[in-house]
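A common beginner's mistake is to predict each chain separately and then try to dock the pieces by hand. The better habit, illustrated here, is to supply every component at once so that their relative placement is modeled jointly.
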Amino acid sequence: MKQTNLVTSAFAVLGAMLILFLAVPVAAMMLRESPGSLWSTLAESEVRAALWVSVGAAAISTAISAVLGVPLGYLLARSQFRGKTLVQAVVDMPVVVPHTVAGIALLTVLGPQGLFGGPAGRLGIRFVDALPGTVAAMLFVSAPFLVNAARAGFEAINPRLEKVSRSLGASPARTFFRISLPLAFRPIVAGAVMSWARAVSEFGAVLVIAYYPRVGPTLIYERFTSFGLGGSRPIAVLLLIISLALFIALRTSAPGVKATNGGVRGA
Amino acid sequence: MLELEDVSKRWSAAFSHHGINLSVGDGEFFVLLGPSGAGKSLLLELIAGFHSPDAGRIRIRGRDVTNLPPEKRNVGLVFQDQALFPHMTVRENIAYGLKGRVAGKEAAAERTERAAVMFRIEGVLDRPADLLSAGQRQRVALARALAIQPDLLLLDEPFSSLDPPLRQDLWREMKALHEKTGVTILHVTHDRGEAAVLGRRVAIIRNGRIEQVGADWSVFDEPVNQFVAEFTGGRNIYAGEARVAGEDCEFTSGSLTIVCVHKLHGPCKALIRPENIILSREPIHTSARNQFHCVVESLLSLGDVCEVTGRLGEHRMTSVVTARSVEDLEIRRGIPLYFSFKASSVHLFRDTTPPE
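With all components supplied together, the output reads:
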């Protein structure tokens, strides 16, 4: 039989309290809704539209994060440059900025008179109360997850693999696409899933810059203020189910190479 | 073949390479030997092209490669940890460098097979690279580096992580391979045994400086300073004064006077390799002109051989003999023995070891 000591038991009790606090409200909320009420809520076009905007805008934001963030993650993992600490601090900053503050900051530059909003407006791109605004808000709050996951993924690769690749005649670009990227693929996908989940859950920043088109959380808030708990809960449960389902599906089926000792430093 | 001309590089406030000059001939098996932290691996990285030197030139086959990126140098590289691409099969690993080098898929496949046969890994070609034994991994790394037919093969402590029997197998294979292919090899190690077995020429590096370069025997038998003497396993090193007297040279250190062939005058050090000292119960009459009657102070068994240290006044003298001789001569602590060596076995050097 496995031995347990007092410390382990005490930690287990403390940990269990936290786990219950996290799991019970979510479970209770889901159990209060019948499949019938969920189905009829899903039949509302307004609800379906909001859920689509949430899922779709988060996907676009994650794609932008990946295209811009994976290269940044690689630089942070492999290069030494002046101001690297500052760059890393900027990457981490959105995590500590309150969401409404992020929204106001974005509105300042993306609004019609803003630094980017003005020129973009002349090209016909509007951020305020439009999908680009929703995507911008989501990108701001979710990008750190992808950049940091990519950085950690690249850092875990033995730098000698890249050196050998170069010595065998591969250019830096070929080395990146044949060696570094495939080996960091799993952590990057995991980071993308986290980034997507964070984007779907964003409310404050989205609310400030783009009330419309309504995302799931905005609609839930609107229903809550007008109709109370009973009126908002079915949408809340729907959003939760969709998020969890996609989250679990992506986390478990992430393609790519297994993390093996051969690719990890110090193996 | 490979020439380093006054190569300098400041890596940090604490470590630099200072004016490294090195020349490796075509087809040579050259060993760079030094303690850890001496800058061996960083020097390989300069030669492979991952960093540029601050000053000096690097030439491979007469071509100045100082400012060429690694992929343009045609240099094979094998690391201690093998660095196999874990997401590829053995075949893909070996064929990796053939893209753009060998025209046509069939030619590349054939070259891959040939490299695999040479290293006896043709049976595991389709296995994932991370499911191999340590010896197979090292053979794949060597096959992959040699498949590109490099001008120069750089080996960075390739056998250090292997167990001794396997390491010795690979030494033999490496020597055979070198004789067969004639590829120029620059091999980095901190193991003087490995250097003695593999290298035709050896350079001793310490603290970013080359201390001595020469044929393996000359570096081991005729060190230029105390560091090289000690690092290459020298045991009997005495500080004293030498005086040329007619045909010979006489070296004195306290009560110890040694006759040597090697001529030097003034303050210097004398080195006698333990394996050149013969032990006997009775005085022997041979060409060995130095004979000392010492009392055995300690015995240290090293498996097949045994280190016997005798005491002679204020000095100690160590000889290495076979375990069999220890039995035959009934060597024990406290017994008197004759330690004899030839005048030609004594190497004198000025101690020019610069401070750390």
